[in-house]
């Protein structure tokens, strides 16, 4: 099988496609078009809901929303994936989990804004066009909720979209939509990346409670070419098998462990371990105090993963691809062995990429399917991706897809 590379749609082209879908569905022109990107997290996986650190970049692949506000409480949404199926919901009296299917994500944003006290936010009509691969672990859901949040902020003149600090309010609405309306647990990494990343930079996010916008995010240069490398993403196209409740189970285990250790979250534990004279011994003492082996493994991943993030930033700023790759491998091994969120397709893709010459590779996202990332020598992305595809064919897996990850811009208005 020949590997397919997913190219981002030009923003002007996709915006016009969204306008055309809107007009064909609703019979008039939209108020405007907005878009938000998918994301790749370079390192710091399953750390956001543990008040930890992570390092995402925005992708050039985006979700576009053509939207107009309404005077009533009706929300109507349509997607290019099924233009004949228009989802509808009423905001008045709407409760959490009150909307089924994909429409829950955009409807949930307006509902969340109302819940936050913005009573003048009403219904809307919207049409979605996207080139973020669905089910790939690249956060197509956050691209949808964040583009919706930015559009509603604009048309209802909430005034949050124009500043980094203001966007925290929109991020919160997107997170609430996913957690409470769509029932998809998320810790805020995806939405923060979609709303706060910038072109040619990664975003060092700190999820400790109580931080200001300035304290919670640091922009870091992201120049793969400077270390003669590329970031390859391979979407395994594997179903998220056995994933029902797995994310919530790990999150609950981490929260229980923090409580047993007398801390508000595992970040507090990680900071104490890092500050110890002998961090390895300190980590061993923490793990020994926990009651069961599964909890020990989960906590070990979180604490060591938080520590890897600043090390990766340091390696990247030094243009040290070998050290950055070592950290990616350590993260991937921990996700496989300690957090246990990989499946066969992810493991095969990672192993093949490493064997084919990647500096480092690991699964990305929540796990149980989705994508891997690989830091590879410049010019080798297609050959390494093809080797993954060849291995998948031999094993009888679905054909994977690939894309080149380039640090891109955050959510914004297109038309």
Automatic annotation (TrEMBL):
Family: Belongs to the GHMP kinase family. GalK subfamily.
Keywords: ATP-binding, Carbohydrate metabolism, Galactose metabolism, Kinase, Magnesium, Metal-binding, Nucleotide-binding, Transferase
Record-annotated GHMP kinase C-terminal domain positions: 313-393
Lineage: Bacteria, Bacillati, Actinomycetota, Actinomycetes, Bifidobacteriales
InterPro entries xrefs: Galactokinase, Galactokinase_CS, GalKase_N, GHMP_kinase_C_dom, GHMP_kinase_C_sf, GHMP_kinase_N_dom, GHMP_knse_ATP-bd_CS, Mevalonate/galactokinase
Uppermost EC category: transferase
Residue span, Galactokinase N-terminal domain: 20-69
GO annotations of cellular component type: cytosol
PANTHER family assigned to the protein according to its UniProt record, in alphabetical order: GALACTOKINASE-RELATED, MEVALONATE KINASE/GALACTOKINASE
One Pfam family linked to the record: GHMP_kinases_N
Domain GHMP kinase N-terminal: 106-195
UniProt-recorded Gene Ontology molecular function terms: ATP binding; galactokinase activity; metal ion binding
Family annotation (PROSITE patterns): GALACTOKINASE, GHMP_KINASES_ATP
One GO BP: galactose metabolic process
Protein name, entry field: Galactokinase
Catalytic activity, EC: 2.7.1.6
């Amino acid at each position: 099988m020949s590997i397919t590379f997913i190219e981002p749609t030009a923003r002007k082209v996709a915006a016009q496609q969204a306008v055309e879908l809107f007009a064909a569905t609703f019979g008039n022109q939209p108020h405007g078009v907005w878009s938000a990107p998918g994301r790749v997290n370079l390192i710091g996986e399953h750390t956001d809901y543990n008040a930890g650190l992570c390092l995402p970049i925005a992708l050039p692949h985006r979700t576009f929303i053509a939207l107009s506000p309404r005077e009533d409480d009706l929300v109507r949404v349509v997607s290019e994936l099924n233009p004949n199926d228009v989802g509808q919901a009423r905001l008045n009296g709407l409760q959490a989990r009150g909307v089924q299917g994909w429409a829950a994500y955009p409807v949930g944003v307006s509902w969340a804004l109302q819940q936050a006290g913005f009573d003048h936010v009403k219904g809307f009509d919207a049409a979605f066009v996207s080139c973020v691969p669905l089910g790939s672990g690249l956060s197509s859901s956050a691209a949808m909720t964040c583009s919706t949040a930015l559009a509603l902020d604009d048309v209802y003149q909430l005034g949050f979209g124009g500043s980094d600090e203001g966007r925290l309010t929109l991020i919160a609405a997107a997170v609430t939509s996913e957690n409470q309306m769509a029932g998809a647990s998320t810790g805020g990494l995806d939405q923060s990346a979609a709303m706060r990343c910038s072109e040619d930079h990664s975003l060092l996010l700190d999820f400790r409670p109580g931080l200001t916008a300035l304290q919670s995010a640091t922009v870091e240069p992201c120049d793969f070419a400077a270390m003669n490398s590329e970031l390859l993403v391979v979407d395994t196209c594997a179903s998220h098998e056995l994933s029902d409740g797995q994310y919530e189970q790990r999150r609950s285990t981490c929260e229980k462990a923090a409580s047993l250790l007398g801390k508000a979250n595992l970040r507090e534990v990680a900071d104490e371990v890092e500050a110890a004279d002998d961090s390895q011994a300190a980590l061993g003492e923490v793990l020994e105090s926990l009651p069961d082996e599964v909890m020990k493994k989960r906590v070990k991943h979180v604490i060591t993963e938080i520590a890897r993030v600043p090390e990766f930033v340091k390696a990247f700023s030094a243009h040290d691809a070998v050290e950055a790759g070592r950290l990616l491998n350590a993260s991937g091994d921990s996700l496989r062995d300690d957090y246990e969120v990989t499946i066969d397709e992810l493991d095969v893709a990672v192993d093949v990429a490493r064997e084919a010459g990647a500096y480092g590779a690991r699964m990305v996202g929540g796990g149980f399917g989705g994508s891997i990332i690989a830091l590879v020598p410049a010019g080798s992305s297609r050959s390494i991706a093809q080797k993954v595809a060849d291995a998948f064919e031999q094993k009888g897996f679905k054909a994977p897809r690939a894309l080149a990850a380039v640090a891109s811009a955050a959510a914004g208005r297109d038309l």
